[in-house]
Amino acid sequence: MTLPAWLAAIKFNDDGLIPAIAQDHKSGRILMMAWMNAEALQLTAQTQTAVYFSRSRAKLWHKGESSGHTQTVHDIRLDCDADVIVLSVTQAGGIACHTGRESCFYQRLDLSGQTPEWQTVDKVLKDPADIYHSSDTAKAIPETKETQAHDVIPSDAKHSHHNNDTTNRSILQQLDGVLAERKQADADSSYVASLYAKGLNKILEKVGEESTESIIAAKDFANCDENSNKAQYDDARHELIYEVADVWFHTLVGLAWFDIESDAVLNELGRRFGLSGIDEKAAR
User: Fold this and answer.
1) What residues are paired with 272 via a beta bridge?
2) What is the mean pLDDT of residues 122-147?
3) If 179 and its partner were Cys, which of 30, 184, 254, 256 is the partner (CB 3.0–4.6 Å)?
């Protein structure tokens, strides 16, 4: 297919994609970065609403079709090398990030201490669980950085509500089943399938990455005072829970790589329950 001259002028990468940065039309703040192919960019220009391309699912996605947080496009700009797009947008709901924040760029590098540390500087405007509603546990698997391109359409959506009668143990068992299925799935069909395709080292890398982020979140939470700033305290608490969930999830992915189900860990914890730390160590 012959591209129109304006599209042919763009230097798409070897995968036929170009990074697209969405910037608030009024404030100029960078809201998010995603990918576009020629079709997504053409649709964006035609509809004046943001359409991106999901690498994990190999398909187009209209920003906000799941969350309702659509982007009206006022201006489209191409950089001097013709390999980056900037969109000037009005963000519906004021939330661009799947974490419920205004911008995906909510972490700031603090250089005031002896070692640089990432700090969360934006508050959660809306709980993601209230944004993405789904009772399908198979859609409860977290999408992380690789798919924050931003795959907000729940294929393996990051947050969902579960029925009140669903126990924590049954959630783990259902996740075991989903993870086992993903091992046989096409690499482009979901984030989890793409992790399996990249191999064990990538999975372990993600466990380490998410563990580090949970440590940062814990330190941020430790520095919060509930009495002096309740909103900041609540945000930091939510962030810690959020990051620990990512650690747990990627650990389960790692276990599933070895065909070890979560029950094995639960049984080991059950074996230890009631033993003192000294007795437990002596029994190893």
Assistant:
1) none
2) 56
3) 256
